[in-house]
Amino acid sequence: MAHPALHLWRLLRWGRTLARHGALTGIERDPNTPAPVRRLARIARFGARVPQVPRYADAFQAIGPAAIKLGQTLATRPDLVGEEAANDLLRLQDALPPLPFPVIRDRIRASLGRPLEALFQSIDEVPVGAASIAQVHRAVTTDGRHVAIKVLRPGIETEFAKAIDTYEWAAAQVEAMGGEASRLRPRLVIETFKRWTARELDLRREAASASELAENMEAEPLYRIPAIDWQRTTGKVLTLEWIDGIKLSDREALLAAGYDTHALAETLVHAFLRQAISDGFFHADMHQGNLFALPGGRIAAIDFGIMGRIDRRARVWLAEILYGLITGNYQRVAEIHFEAGYVPPHHNVAEFATALRAVGEPMRGLPVKEMSVGGMLDGLFNITRDFDMQTQPHLLLLQKTMVMVEGVARGLDPEINLWETSGPFVGEWIRTELGPEAKLADRLVLDVRTLLRLPELVRNIERQFPAPGGAPPAPPLKEIERIRVIGGWRYIVVALLAAAVSAAVTVWMLG
Questions:
Q1: Residue 462 pLDDT > 70
Q2: SS (H, E, C) 346-391
Q3: Across-strand partners of 309?
Q4: What number of CA atoms fall less than 13 Å from residue 103's CA on the CB side?
Q5: Residue 411 CA to its chain's centroid (Å)
Q6: How confident is the model at residue 495 (pLDDT cuts 50, 70, 90)?
Q7: How far is the C-alpha of 222 from the C-alpha of 181, rounded, in Å?
Q8: Distance (Å, whole) CA 403 – CA 423
Q9: Across-strand partners of 308?
Q10: Which H/E stretch holds residue 301?
Q11: Tell me, what DSSP letter sits at residue 133?
């Protein structure tokens, strides 16, 4: 951990750049900004020529690679940086001038530990893309396969480590000031950012994410993940199958090639829902530049540095929230927020349901092309402060991804309605996961797991509560094992009978 003086110097230097782009104006004017932060912002902008219209994305772009990634993270947090800043940060272009090919060639050779001629027939010296963390070159392997090689920029790990160190220090200072700053949990924001960058700075983890997503998406044959070349992949070099398709951003080219853009949009939405709700592991960077149309109406995705993960309990809550908003069941959506702990228990469920209705009902009467999942989610976040809701990073990342998916789908088919496309999938998943059969199966699994713990539980009780009158003479070891095994099975038989009766009663009640 660097000295606080060094952190302050970095913050003032970065703040100076932000001030020159007008990006500190909102911080100074926001009444919820802690006084020490407001003073630091004023010092940073002292003597600077501040434009009337803030240019947040340009400011982060000027600071450097780590700031670009931080800006992309903050774009998911309109509650933290404000709607205007969040929207502007969405246009951050993660692009930098490419490094000379000799530098990249040496990086590949040193990382793979073998002469390039033994691994590749050829490597294009002109990169197909150069971002803040890595750049990508097209190549052909010695066995004739066309691949993409992603190479980390030299020294990027050290640069990010220094920046994150200061981000963590600054977030801790701000959160300790209490009030609104504490509710927004800036330390958790930076921790989430740190986890994202850890995956992006270790290309083996990105490769593993792509591999896991490919396995999960076998049920969606129209959604494809490029294969990883593990023999040519390390922490600093990632080699994967080359994808030759049309970017989903080029609608005119898609129409000229004969693609059904409505079908492509539905495929994209279904793929996202399967990732987020069915599997709980989703591609969180699904913008148009990372998605390609392939022959046969398929979609291929690339760039798996940012991935989201939510557990089953959170997925159940999410599915019920979405379905409740789709069907207008605001009372159930409010109850789920309280059950999940998103809203503190001292608030009133009925009041929260009314606030949700104020968000949802205006959307329900709109024409199909004017309804927006992103707009409704923005409305949800606007009421978080009134009900003291702490931020949930996994849901914020999911919200950002849903807005991305909706934007890409609308670009393909302006008439598509994400509500109508999502409703049947979400409803079926809820019936499968929360219906009577699922509840009975969950109960049986829980009972079996409980039964398996009974023998150890009995042994623990015997150890904690020995027979009165002092410890008896130690019997032979085999005698102890035999007695305990017989005793354990006696408990299991009794418990199995009890579980059978419980299951019978449950089936009778459901019937």
A1: no
A2: CCCHHHHHHHHHHHHHHHHCCCHHHCCHHHHHHHHHHCCCCCCCCC
A3: 281
A4: 12
A5: 23
A6: very low
A7: 44
A8: 16
A9: 282
A10: strand 298-301
A11: S
Nearest to 282 by CA among 129, 446, 397, 139: 397
- Paired tokens of 76: 């998911």
Per-residue pLDDT of 13-24, as tens digits, reads: 888 888 888 887
Q: Which amino acid is at 473?
A: P
CA distance 138 to 124: 6
Q: Would you please indicate which residues are annotated as catalytic (active-site) residues?
A: 285
Q: What is the pLDDT of residue 230?
A: 95
Would you say 266 and 282 are in contact if contact means Cβ atoms under 8 Å apart?
no
> Are 125 and 111 spatial neighbours (Cβ–Cβ below 8 Å)?
no
Q: Which two tokens stand for residue 391?
A: 């931020």
**For residue 110, what are the contacts with CB-CB under 8 A and spacing of at least 6?**
none
Burial 445-454, CB ≥16 within 10 A → b, else e: eebeeebeee
Q: Of how many residues is the chain composed?
A: 511
Amino acid at 256: A
Query: How far is the C-alpha of 246 from the C-alpha of 244, rounded, in Å?
Result: 7
Tens digits of residue pLDDT in 52-108: 788 888 888 888 888 888 887 777 666 667 777 877 787 776 677 889 999 999 999
Average pLDDT over residues 270-294: 87
289-299 in b/e form (b: 16+ CB < 10 A) is bbbbbeeeebb
Closest Cα partner for 455 from 496, 489, 500? 489
